[in-house]
Automatic annotation (TrEMBL):
It comes from the Eukaryota. Keywords: Chromosome, Cytoplasm, DNA damage, DNA recombination, DNA repair, Nucleus, Repressor, Telomere, Transcription, Transcription regulation. It is found in: Chromosome, Telomere; Cytoplasm; Nucleus. Residues 241-330 form the Non-structural maintenance of chromosome element 4 C-terminal domain. The lineage of its organism: Eukaryota, Metazoa, Chordata, Craniata, Vertebrata. Belongs to the NSE4 family. It holds the Pfam family Nse4_C. GO terms for cellular component: chromosome, telomeric region; cytoplasm; nucleus; Smc5-Smc6 complex. This is Non-structural maintenance of chromosomes element 4. Its main location: nucleus. Acts as a repressor of nuclear receptor-dependent transcription possibly by interfering with CREBBP-dependent coactivation. May function as a coinhibitor of other CREBBP/EP300-dependent transcription factors. One of its GO terms (biological process) is DNA recombination. Residues 90-138 form the Nse4/EID protein Nse3/MAGE-binding domain.
Amino acid sequence: MEAAATSDTESDSSSDDLSWGEADIHPSLLERVDEEKCRSIRKQYRQLIYSVQQNRDDIVNTASDSLTEALEEANVLFDAVSRTREAALDAQFLVLASDLGKEKAKQLNSDMNFFNQVAFCDFLFIFVGLNWMEDDGRDPLNNCDDNIAFSFWETVQKEATSWMLQAETFHFLFGSFKPESAARKPRLDHRRKVQKMEENGDMPTKLRKLDLSGNQEATEKEVERILGLLQTYFRKYPDTPVSYFEFVIDPHSFSRTVENIFYVSFIIRDGFARIRLDQDRLPILEPININLAGEGNDPSFHSRKQGVISLSLQDWKNIVATFEISEAMITNSY
């Protein structure tokens, strides 16, 4: 399940906040992306694309395996791809390779359907038992009599008739084509039909009004309740940020945990708290200075960034076991 959270952070503390490249948090939250390795992969992809573009004519016009070798090299590089930037370069190379493959296919020899008359005649002679190819330079057409020719065509005719489809015989239609006007069905009165349905109680229940405000009000109340719990913690421990996972995780309910992440995202979006990474690269929640709360609408003072948190059922179990969470900080309201 996924929930989006937005936070307003000061521009001079961007090094501590969630950056755009760190928005996709790994479930373990312990490993960092090897930037040098990713940079090397991108460099190799660009060199491969440049090399294929420079040798485009040779790849298309010759019978070499350059395109196959380039695809194999791209497959080796793709095994180490873990981010979108490198995957985009792989997709760019695949588009280039598909274009080259299409051009190369157009230049293939298309004479596969060429009909060889001499070979076909030789095959017919062998089929009917007149293998005159073994004779010393004699022309079979000049040394055959009428009986041999008749036998030849009779054998061919018997074999051909077994593969020929015969046309279906025509059956005459016996009967009269005199047109007869169909009996006209009586038209039913729609109003009488509706009245009859109402009398029998067959009419469906009519929807008078669709009220969608109830769900919105329930969401607002739950967000306000969770905000009150968070502010109570901040008043009790003003100098201690709260762990994001310890605050939103319910060790007894995965669905309740997802709901908590959803509600906390509204608190962060509205500027009542902010989320950042601590020195251990773990997300924490911090209160925002009350004096700066009124300046939250000033785009020059705060920079808004967005992150996506992905949480699966196995991730939830691992977090509960790792942080040893036994009780939920956000208690149920029901």
